[in-house]
Amino acid sequence: MLKGIPHILSPELLKVLCEMGHSDRIVIGDGNFPAESVGRNCKVVRCDGHGVPELLDAILQVMPLDAYVEKPVSLMEVMKGDPVKTPIWDTYKDIVAHHDTRGADAVGTIERFAFYKEASTAYAIVTTGESAVYANVMLQKGVVQD
Fold first, then answer.
1. Mean pLDDT for the chain overall
2. The pairing of beta strand 137-140 with beta strand 73-76
3. Rounded to whole angstroms, how far apart are CA atoms 122 and 35?
4. How far apart are alpha carbons 23 and 52 in whole angstroms?
5. What angle do CA 122, 124, 130 make, to 5 degrees?
């Protein structure tokens, strides 16, 4: 056990976060995200049984977002014609605002297939049990400044 580390962050996930450098990206995928096929060339960390919001919040407690890019947080856009609603995005924006002074302005979207392509070049993909659709989020790591 460690003090000050969110309990949801497993040793494997903490190791991945420590290994990541400035501008590396990590994807937190919902339960439908094809992590193993998209992540053939990156590390895949399983966090089944957890949702994206609690993992997003825990990761942002220990990992800064990249201050040198306009949108260090990327969400997967809803496909044209898909009537689904994405209220979970509001939750994400609230979490990001709690950890980054840019708030919701740090959050952008990427077209679905472009998101998959970008995710395939991420340092790591975290799989979750999140049941909300279009609940995937990609984070670009910043630098720690103290």
1. 96
2. antiparallel
3. 11
4. 21
5. 110
Question: CA geometry: angle at 138 spanning 58 and 99, to 5°?
Answer: 40
Integer Cα distance of 119 and 27 in angstroms: 7
Q: Which residues are designated catalytic?
A: 22, 66, 116
Whole-angstrom distance, CA of residue 142 vs CA of residue 145: 9
Nearest Cα neighbor of 108 from 63, 145, 65, 144 is 65
Render pLDDT for 84-140 as a digit per residue (tens, 0 to 9): 999 999 999 999 999 999 999 999 999 999 999 999 999 999 999 999 999 999 999
Residues 33-52 pLDDT 10s: 999 999 999 999 999 999 99
Does pTM top 0.90 for this prediction?
Answer: yes
Look up tokens 């995200």; give the residue.
33
Contact 69, 140 (CB under 8 A): yes
Q: Which residues, other chains included, contact 65 with Cβ-Cβ below 8 Å and sequence gap of 6+?
A: 72, 73, 96, 99, 100, 106, 139, 140, 141, 142
